[in-house]
């Protein structure tokens, strides 16, 4: 019978228990990893789909993504890259690379209203990372919808970038005028001539708004060559696009209203 009061017994017992617990935790982590990855993948698919319209049901989201989204990767010159999976690309890591070396995901959504080109965004807010997705019509200039998220912005202030009221403002806005990128968030007085390029900012969240502006401009600079190729192609089939519509062409017919809100609400 071992002496349970001895130092050696205590040491051996503690060592064995530590080993048992470590093995149990490792087994649990290994077993849970596929489930955790499925949750991460689903959240990403939900975020991408949310840029065109908001859905709540998990099966509906997965079905919509599977049937309507085509993933491709392009480089800084706008050429399609083979052998790289768009879904696995981390934009935070890509943005740290030399622009010429970046691999850029494009999610081409095809629905009843035609093709929408969804691109990922990543930037910095007031306290931490911000990110999202933005869907562009096939004129490569008109915004269909947006999805934003954050890691640590202030509740009621910068965190409002996740709110439908903020995201819905981007619907039917324009990215650029000619070669000049003009889309931006502005708090205060808006000029009538710039109404197609301006989104009302969030009170008390100036720095977060600046972060979103920087993120938007940087993200679209990544895809400038690709968008130019689509405009030049003037086709469809996933690789072409029509000539950009100017604000003057849409004044009579455009009613800013997020397609996400039209289709399902959130």
Q: How would you describe the overall organization of this protein?
A:
The chain is an alpha+beta fold and 266 residues long. It has one domain (41-263). The protein has helices at residues 7-50, 58-68, 91-94, 164-167, 206-222, 224-233, 247-250, 259-263, and strands at residues 69-74, 104-111, 114-124, 129-137, 143-150, 176-177, 180-181, 184-186, 198-200. Strands 1-2-3-4-5 form a five-stranded antiparallel beta sheet. A two-stranded antiparallel sheet has the order 6-7. Helix 1 crosses helix 2. The longest helix is centred in the N-terminal third of the chain and has 44 residues, at 7-50. The radius of gyration is 23 Å and the shape is elongated. Mean pLDDT is 86; it is low at 235-266.
Lay out the secondary structure.
Blueprint lengths: L6 H44 L7 H11 E6 L16 H4 L9 E8 L2 E11 L4 E9 L5 E8 L13 H4 L8 E2 L2 E2 L2 E3 L11 E3 L5 H17 L1 H10 L13 H4 L8 H5 L3
Parallel strand pairs: 8-9
Antiparallel strand pairs: 1-2, 2-3, 3-4, 4-5, 6-7
Helix pairs in contact: 1-2
Labels describing this entry:
single chain, 266 residues, alpha+beta, five-stranded antiparallel sheet, two-stranded antiparallel ribbon, 37% helix
